Amino acid sequence: MLDALRFFTSARLRLLLTVALGAVLLGGAVIWWSTGHLGWALYYTLLDVAGAANPDRPGDSPGDGSGPWARAAQVIVTFCGITFAPLATAIAVEALATGRRGLPRSPGAGLRDHVVVVGLNNLGTRVAGMLRETGVPVVCVERDPQSQGVAAMRALGVPVLLGDAPLDGQLRRARVQHARAVVSVTRDDAANLEAALEARAIHPEIRIVVRLFDDEFAHHVYATLGNVVSRSVSYLSAPGFAAALMGREVVGTLSVFRHVLLLAELTAESGENGVGSSLLGRTVWELEEAGGVRVVAVRLARRPGVVFWNFADRGHRLQAGDRVLVAATRSGLARLSPPPPVPPEGPPEELSEGPTA
User: For domain 237-336, which CATH number applies: 3.10.100.10, 3.30.70.1450, 2.30.130.10, 3.30.70.100?
Assistant: First the structure.
């Protein structure tokens, strides 16, 4: 009922309705106290609301329920009843003529344990969509009504709050006090930090994820705010791109605070130009000795269909065809599989004359 009232009415109309209804209930209680009979009190109250007031006449005995308090209550109830007709007209005009049905819906009054996503750029839209796919309730906050993510969330039925209203007010409308987390992923570090601080002021125990580009700024946020996680798209993607450009077989990444661990599968190969030639003859323990590398699993060449997780034989020397799955930093991965040698500098060889392809 509260959600329906918010959909059809504005804040001012809800205030007028609340005051008028409260006055009617108070007047009905006074009439009940004067008459001493609930049925007659309801009868008089409903007639007065409908505008069919039955005024007292001079000479009426005070014992029949009339009196100064009852007369005052009837006057208040009658005037409040008269206001209901224009209020109903105003509600109909606002609901039908202003196009409220074309706007994204607001969060429900009973929404609990949801995630508030601030910023509907490409990243925010993907985060909100993935959360909804996993069954987590989502509420989005966006200042630009023309953002491409607004239409996408409207199609998915996700509540979206639009406009340049103060961020604390928008977060309260998003019911952040009942949310499980806030994810602020706008392109502005200051706006993301503001969202984190406002959410923490409203809900001190809420979990916060912020998108911060500046690494030093992110460390200050970690040191100041508790229960907060900072991520940067460039920091997360750079190691994977660098490893792919170097010819590494990266199968995934793991974010650890502001750093990234690469999950790569390397093959011990023979030959000078083999990418994994540096692994031949080395033990699992030797791979981890210098740090920056942890061997997660081993797949032996003689048993290619079996993956040995947490390989127990740390002294096993890798043979040609053995494959290892490692979690490594970028420098650790570069140490395990150095890039192919650069050809020596020199004058280019002369091309032999002949037909061109």
Answer: 3.30.70.1450
